[in-house]
Amino acid sequence: MNYDIIGDIHGQADKLDELLPHLGYVPTGRSYKPPAGRQVVFLGDLIDRGPKQMRVLEVVRAMMESGDALCIMGNHEFNAISYATDDPLNPDESLRPNRGNSGKCGKNREQHAAFLEQVGEGSAAHKAWLDWFRTLPPFIDLGGIRVVHGCWDDAAVQTLKDAGWGPPGSVLDNDLLYRLSRIVPGAEETELIKARKLLTCGLELELPEGMYILSKEGHKHYDMRIANWREGATELHQVALVPAGQLEQLRGMEWPAGLVISRIDGAPIFVGHHWFSGHPVIEGPKLACLDWSAAANGPLVAYRWDGEAELSNDKLAWVSKFD
Predict the structure, then answer these.
(1) Dihedral of the CA atoms 288, 200, 148, 19 (nearest 10)?
(2) Domain for residue 234, yes or no?
(3) pTM: predicted TM-score of the whole model, two decimal places
């Protein structure tokens, strides 16, 4: 089987409906049929931000049900489940806080508002989509390629497998959800929580006191994402994944103790999540990030994998590209 791996869509159905025919997929009513011998792999983050999230979900689910697509869970699908699930240690709040007046609650409401408006918060459709999100695996190893939303890590993959999340047919029930997300006050993060965060959100490092990164929405973040696959990097700014205009403050910063950039061996890895910008390119022969900010006027990007052991830029395809 050959695969067309598609990055974060975030409700940009028009781009998806443009990309699939561009890749040779044929419309079949409300869905698409692939060219012979091909299958789509969606990298998660189907929802939030965009104007046509229900259409995106409709296409992805229909293609999965017909056996023409696979999809992993992005952090936005995980967040949607947590947003709607009561915190067992704080029944007046959700696992993803959103009911209070704190800045964190406000940020979480803002980020998820478009989805809730389009699906109808608390509706039967809302519950049904959350139930479907729970069936999406956090990673898939297809032998020739590996796909994950934030960052592939063998130890983290095994940790989630051991907990019962990841094998085909596994469902994210509330008991496992609590273990994946709930930190008991005063306790350290468990290895299970660390593994979930690493796979769905990538590696994040805390910034020195007094420093912060401004997100696309203008929120302050006191940690930063790290491209821990960039073999050969010697300076922190070379692996820091921060919004445009904020890289300069990291130049000359001391390399964090314990940060290891490892060579990728084995099957190529595909990730999303990281909001790249500019002209789509692969990160290297063993890894490609396919999130090129489709929700912020960037292109929706795919990689057409045909069995190669090393990736190349000429296998990338995209629509609604920048000028």
Answers:
(1) -70
(2) no
(3) 0.95
